[in-house]
Amino acid sequence: MEIVFLGVGEAFDDALPNTSILIRCGEEKTRATLLLDCGYTTPPQFWKEENSAEALDAVWISHFHADHFFGLPALLIRFWEDGRKKPLTILGQKGIETLTRKCVDLAYPGFYERIRFPIKFQEVESEKSVPFLGLTFQAAQNEHSLKDLALRINAGERSLFYSGDGQPTAETIALAKGSELIIHEAFLTDTAVHGHATVEAALDMAKASRASTLALVHIQRRERKQVLARIQELRDQAGPVNLIIPEPGDRIVI
């Protein structure tokens, strides 16, 4: 499983694109390619990485804040312009189809009906496993200002957890248990703010979940330098968990 950090920024970051993760699973001929969240700055980052209109199999939307799904219109319309024929599946919580249609119609009125490749929708809810693309998807709800679903992806013996936005809950900690990689938002270092995790909370969650690696993303734009300055201290605090703070374009393989 290859993980590419297309973006790692928060909603209003002037230096870093919105948090969005590209995942490639399997060998080239049978590869499944999945995009986790698609904010308004995501499409250009995706096109730099994948210039084929057929490359992407599915998009996961964690919640309906703009920095996580307002990039869908540009992505879909460019696929249409570039002659895509392969179906695309968009996965998310209840309402994903209605909100996607509204988003595209607002951005490019009348264009949704002109798209010729099939767009399929798959609703995913907590406590239900969804098999898809040879993978298994499981979700649990984070504590956020808007309903947000954290996602676990199992690919054989490999596993990845992605928080979207929000503070860890007992359900998300249980879902992340034993994951090789946790990608978690950490808005501030240690000051609690409603609907967002702190660095300390993400570290505690990773240790409680016995994860191998924790990648911190969506760090508040003014806080990021402070977090980077404390990286060794935070790594010591992380104990057995390998702590990373990725930059756009970084990639790891699990």
Write the layout of secondary structure elements.
Blueprint: E1 2-7, E2 20-25, E3 32-36, H1 42-49, E4 58-61, H2 66-69, H3 72-81, E5 88-92, H4 96-107, E6 119-123, E7 130-132, E8 135-141, E9 149-155, E10 158-162, H5 170-176, E11 181-185, H6 199-209, E12 213-217, H7 224-229, H8 231-238, E13 242-244, E14 251-253
Name the features.
single chain; 254 residues; alpha/beta; Metallo-beta-lactamase, Chain A; 7-stranded mixed beta sheet; 14 strands; 26% helix
Description of the molecule:
With 254 residues, the protein is of the alpha/beta class. The protein has helices at 42-49, 66-69, 72-81, 96-107, 170-176, 199-209, 224-229, 231-238, and strands at residues 2-7, 20-25, 32-36, 58-61, 88-92, 119-123, 130-132, 135-141, 149-155, 158-162, 181-185, 213-217, 242-244, 251-253. It has a 7-stranded mixed sheet with strand order 6-5-4-3-2-1-14. A 7-stranded mixed sheet has the order 7-8-9-10-11-12-13.
Task: Please outline what is shown here.
The protein has 254 residues and is an alpha/beta fold. The protein contains 8 helices and 14 strands.
The CATH architecture can be given as: 4-Layer Sandwich
- Tell me the total number of β-strands: 14
As an assembly, this protein is single chain
Number of domains: 1
Say which CATH homologous superfamily is assigned: Ribonuclease Z/Hydroxyacylglutathione hydrolase-like
Question: What CATH first level would be assigned?
Answer: Alpha Beta
